[in-house]
Fold this sequence. Notes:
- The protein is an alpha/beta fold and 293 residues long.
- The protein has helices spanning 2-9, 19-26, 42-47, 52-59, 93-107, 125-137, 184-199, 228-235, 239-249, 255-278, and strands spanning 34-36, 113-118, 142-149, 176-180, 206-211.
- A five-stranded parallel beta sheet has the order 1-2-3-5-4.
- The model is unreliable at 1-13, 135-139 and 148-162 (pLDDT under 50).
Amino acid sequence: MSYLCAERCTDDSLSIGQEGTGVGAVSTLKSDDYITSTHRGHGHCIAKGADIALMMAELLGKETGYCRGRGGSMHIADVETGNLGANGIVAGGMPIATGVGLSMKMQGTDRVCLCIFGDGAANEGAFHEIHQHGSHLGSARYLSVREQPVRDVHVNAEGYAQRTVALRASAYGIPGELVDGNNVLAVYAAVSVAVQRARDGQGPSLIESRTYRHKGHAKSDQNLYRSRDEIREWQQRDPILYFANLLISQEKLSQQEAKQEEAAAYAAVEEAYQFGLGSPDPDPETLLEGVYA
């Protein structure tokens, strides 16, 4: 529950409303598995086991951050927990995930790499190339989860005729499935099957997780291309509220415990934020450290 709440507390994340997808998918992995992420990857970073104090320091460009302040929000990575990094390039994590999957195969391990990407990536060449080559490799141990910020507009406005990207998997001879991305348990169930398939050497899978980003694309985005009614409708299907209400209805969590979990998450993020604020900026003398010809 706290993982779900923690992403909500970072107002700068701009992926508010998509927590169910990130947590549900990443929770299927072992600690030594890998992920590649998107430029809205803070929730994925948390779910993979990151220290949110170090994550927040990185978002603030501080020396104590995971990438010593060099990566910032869009390129945060934590290799020790298997997070190979967010990527500002659309579909940029896909070739990386394919290479990791092939590496796991050649090493003879059952480790997998989960590639998380957004709807725009489905129209990039890398999307088609990795699924084509992944199916040819046969037992390459990677899988991809498409995190779609659904918009109720004409299908052509999405840039492709068939809005269900999961159907594209059939062109490459791999399984594809569409799931409710706001239902963390549904995401977990679907990705669990795909993860096991990859571990068994049966190749990649494509999971399309239908979810909704409540905020605009960036801080400068006034979010005027969506109606207020549409946003309110999706907010009523908020993944955190859904999960909390489900646990309460099943008497696995009380209303009071839910409030305590939420308060604890907010407190943890505030503490991490203060850690980041109090951390030193990178020394300009170290500017070229880590830069190679």
